[in-house]
């Protein structure tokens, strides 16, 4: 039975991976206490020697985008140095490494969706650390998949979707940035596609197409469009909102300054994933609908509303 190591089991993607990967092997799901990627490379290697995974799936990351501007060393330790340690260990042992990256590795210019072979140019410490992690994986010459995602959300963990739902019930006015464009990517979708790719690898590693792929749903929106769609759907589900979704105000990024620069263009072209593996990705709205339904059901609101 294949031993599959999942890092960051309490994160959004890590949580969903435990569900999607369970049928594929013996899962070894770790959190920061069990495998701290900020610690020395020697200690990470010792942990890998002890766990002996055949597949390493690494959703763990330093994701505090603004904090990384003043703590780039820690961001690099987790997002780059630790990733290099795992990649080199995988190369020596013939293991597969599945690593997740981000649209932040690009400079955010233009309006065309980014392709895997486009020139990178991160504009933040977080983006630089994630790009360094990608480069460490490629240099290690391991069997690898790098999956770049954008605007990740899920029913588990903290994210923009949950924040907007909470604020929509508390406030009658909201201002949301409308000049950053991308596709909200559900953690469940990322985990399900990851499982399908690993399944195919296990069925025929010799001819498997390793490499870097973009993984985000079809379509595009702004953060403002995302919030407006979410709260409109929440109202249709029967959730009592204080705000009218039609009255959410769109604002430029310049009116909401943050320490780290956000990409204006977070669009990811996923043609390579489709053409290589035949995987059809859904529209972004379907993931939002699914997570919204999950959250309402888990809170008991959905049942109470039906009754």
From TrEMBL:
CDD domains: dTDP_HR_like_SDR_e (cd05254). Pathway: Carbohydrate biosynthesis; dTDP-L-rhamnose biosynthesis. Its EC number is 1.1.1.133. Binds 1 Mg(2+) ion per monomer. Its cofactor is Mg(2+). It catalyses: dTDP-beta-L-rhamnose + NADP(+) = dTDP-4-dehydro-beta-L-rhamnose + NADPH + H(+). Keywords: NADP, Oxidoreductase. GO terms for molecular function: dTDP-4-dehydrorhamnose reductase activity. The keyword Hydrolase does not apply. Residues 3-295 form the RmlD-like substrate binding domain. Belongs to the dTDP-4-dehydrorhamnose reductase family. Catalyzes the reduction of dTDP-6-deoxy-L-lyxo-4-hexulose to yield dTDP-L-rhamnose. NCBIfam families: PRK09987.1 (NF007440), rmlD (TIGR01214). This is dTDP-4-dehydrorhamnose reductase. It comes from Chromobacterium vaccinii.
């Amino acid at each position: 039975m294949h031993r599959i190591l999942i890092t960051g089991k309490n994160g959004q993607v890590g949580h969903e991976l435990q569900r999607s990967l369970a049928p594929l092997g013996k899962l070894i799901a770790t959190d920061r206490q069990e495998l701290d990627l900020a610690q020395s490379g020697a200690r990470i290697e010792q942990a890998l020697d002890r766990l002996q995974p055949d597949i390493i799936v690494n959703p763990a990351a330093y994701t505090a985008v603004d904090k990384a501007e003043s703590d780039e060393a820690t961001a690099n330790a987790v997002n780059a140095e630790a990733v290099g340690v795992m990649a080199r260990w995988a190369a020596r042992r013939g293991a597969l490494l599945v690593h997740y990256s981000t649209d932040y590795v690009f400079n955010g210019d233009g309006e065309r969706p980014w392709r895997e072979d486009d020139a990178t140019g991160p504009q933040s410490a977080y983006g630089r650390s994630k790009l360094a992690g990608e480069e460490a994986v490629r240099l290690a010459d391991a069997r690898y998949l790098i999956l770049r995602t954008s605007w990740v959300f899920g029913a588990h963990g903290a994210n923009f979707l949950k924040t907007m739902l909470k604020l929509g019930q508390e406030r009658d006015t909201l201002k949301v940035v409308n000049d950053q464009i991308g596709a909200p990517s559900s953690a469940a979708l990322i985990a399900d596609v990851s499982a399908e790719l690993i399944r195919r690898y296990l069925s025929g590693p010799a001819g498997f197409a390793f490499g870097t792929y973009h993984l985000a749903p079809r379509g595009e929106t702004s953060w403002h469009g995302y919030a407006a769609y979410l709260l409109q759907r929440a109202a249709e589900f029967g959730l009592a909102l204080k705000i009218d979704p039609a009255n959410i105000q769109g604002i430029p990024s310049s009116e909401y300054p943050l320490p780290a620069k956000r990409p204006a263009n977070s669009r990811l072209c996923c043609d390579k994933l489709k053409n290589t593996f035949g995987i059809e990705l859904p529209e972004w709205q379907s993931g939002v609908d699914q997570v919204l339904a999950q959250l309402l059901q888990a809170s008991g609101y959905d049942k109470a509303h039906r009754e």
